[in-house]
Write a structure and sequence with these properties.
Chain lengths: 366, 366
């Protein structure tokens, strides 16, 4: 085994509301096998990182309620490598805490943050991109991976690439300085982005030296940085629970994009490594259907499913026979206590159903 | 209690394939509560007939496999009033046997045949029409009830009314001589039928004197008549099982329409009593949806159902929450072992799904 490329941080959170009734509070997206691979998204994330981190090179940050299931799914994950949050405080607190803990354990290593609930079809392309990102990170940049957009998606934010990064001879063949980040655009804007050739999808992956990240944080969000430092100092000692319980609830809730990536990009400190790797955030059932197959897909036992005149249907059976007749693009998700019937076209509106169940107090279904 | 108007014959058969997965071989349509009334279609049929027949005035003809469940649903039905067929031999054998048994028990009484799996919203209109039909039947006609067509349906056969029936003073204010029967027409033909004002839907109800029916049968189908006579002679004695087992399997399979109604109409022996009574044969889920409500319907616990952007949806829950999003006219039928998802528009094609299951040998689902 050669030197690890980086220490990985895997924030494992998010409700996956638009994937209800598959995804539930107690069993969110990252804990599910959504590709039929026999491995959950979380497991696949760690599988993918293993060649880059070596054994024991990943920490998972997740809600305390999911800690037991995460350990069950990742038997090789050390007790110390699961950082359990008492309650979610958004991505900056999660990633910042992990970076601070890793800095105290290992010094100013390169860390990389990779969400636990994304799908990447081409692991080799992913590995190549992360290796280059780590190289650029060593030079002091905050580095993101920019996904080659193959269609003008309105579901993702974009990162705009500028001039090539100059590392003075070190190998960074594709990295570019980031000119800025954008929120999810409307369709016309997305078309325009695509036409320029400068925009990539922001997959929310960040690679950076631990000290660089903490310095940026201290500058941009000093109170949050101080709180995380206090917790990190106590993390591997006897005071963890006391400090965590006292400090964590008061931490600012903010995404890493807003806290650091955007302000640092504004002064040229962020780089992007473009990559095509079959990435998807599995944001809704339309996305899931595309991942599983272009034209008609079953997640589960295909022997249970009959479709007729229903091209592009996605069916998730749960032990019973499911017959779908005459609904192209149908989405039928069967679970023991709840059934969803919709179409790919309405995939984004599934959240509305969950909102209604929430309003009705049907918490047992959430 | 006044004199009964007629003795009723209720053929309880038919697979109801287009209502799968609600309707199954072991639990066909007539054994189900399809209106949410708390009474099955069979029970409602007998409820409706009670004022016309008086107690004990109905015989049910059904498959031997359904005999136990029919008795369970109809605890007041006498053992002798359930005629169990060893196997289905179509409607002429079923109705002919019942008429022959009733003729032997009661003489040349008026009998009326009414399917066990139809819905009639206006019981008073039904009763009025049957009373008139019985009056006309006493004069020797084979009388059918003709449903006022409120749209040019292609799902029903039609009966064409001709001149008024003249009973020489007896009250038959609306009855007309039948000029002929037609099979299910195409849409253009159905439009034409409606425009003439002469056509009614053939609801398959026949009212006739037992002896008249048997005489027609003897003339049109002498072998079938002889077979039924042999069985009827033995029915209420010790030889029933032996004679039934020997004769029944060889009986001709033919519908009463073809065996008698059409040829007898051709020589002026059939009359029709027109009636508007909210009749429906509940032939498929589109029909069921219309019966339950014009615009969105739940058969079962409505508290389990959430619909959004799905006008006219029909949902049949089975204990689990069902969410339907963005599919107008959706039909979602949940059962413990099978789920159907389709639309009203495709209701007629549900049979194709059952055919596929049959071809796959999935008999446990049929």
């Amino acid at each position: 085994m050669t030197e690890p490329v980086l220490h990985a941080i895997v924030p494992a959170g998010g409700a996956g509301t638009r994937l209800w009734p598959l995804s539930r509070r107690a069993a969110p997206k990252f804990l599910l096998d959504l590709t039929g691979a026999g491995r959950t998204l979380l497991q696949q994330t760690l599988d993918r990182l293993a060649p880059l981190t070596g054994p024991g090179g990943t920490v998972v940050v997740t809600g305390a309620v999911h800690a037991e299931e995460v350990h069950r799914q990742l038997p090789d994950l050390g007790e110390a490598d699961l950082l359990a949050e008492p309650a979610p405080r958004d991505s900056m607190a999660a990633i910042g805490l992990a970076a601070a803990v890793l800095q105290r354990r290992h010094g100013d290593v390169v860390v990389g943050s990779f969400a636990a609930d994304h799908v990447i079809a081409d692991g080799t392309a992913f590995e190549r991109a992360v290796r280059e990102a780590a190289e650029v990170a060593r030079a002091g940049y905050l580095v993101t991976i920019g996904i080659e957009a193959d269609h003008p998606s309105t579901a993702f934010g974009y990162v705009r690439a500028g001039d090539p990064v100059d590392l003075g001879g070190a190998p960074a063949p594709t990295a570019r300085v980031v000119r800025g980040f954008t929120e999810k655009p409307d369709a016309a804007t997305a078309e325009r982005y695509l036409a320029t050739g400068e925009y990539r999808w922001n997959a929310g992956m960040f690679v950076v030296r631990a000290q660089v990240l903490l310095d940026h944080l201290a500058e941009q969000r000093p109170e949050l940085a101080a709180g995380l430092a206090e917790i990190a100092d106590a993390w591997d000692g006897p005071a963890r629970a006391e400090v965590l319980g006292r400090v964590w609830p008061g931490l600012e809730k903010i995404a890493i994009d807003h806290a650091i990536a955007e302000p640092v990009a504004a002064r040229g400190g962020v780089a992007v490594v473009p990559a095509a790797m079959g990435w998807d955030d599995v944001g809704d059932f339309a996305s899931l259907a595309s991942i599983l197959a272009g034209d008609g897909a079953v997640l589960g036992d295909a022997g249970l499913v009959i479709t007729e005149a229903s091209d592009g249907a996605l069916v998730v059976p749960a032990g019973r026979t499911v017959a779908v007749l005459g609904i192209p693009g149908a989405v039928v998700v069967d679970t023991p206590d709840a059934l969803l019937v919709t179409t790919r076209e309405h995939a984004q509106r599934v959240k509305g159903v969950v909102d209604r169940l929430t309003a009705q107090g049907r918490t047992e279904l959430l």
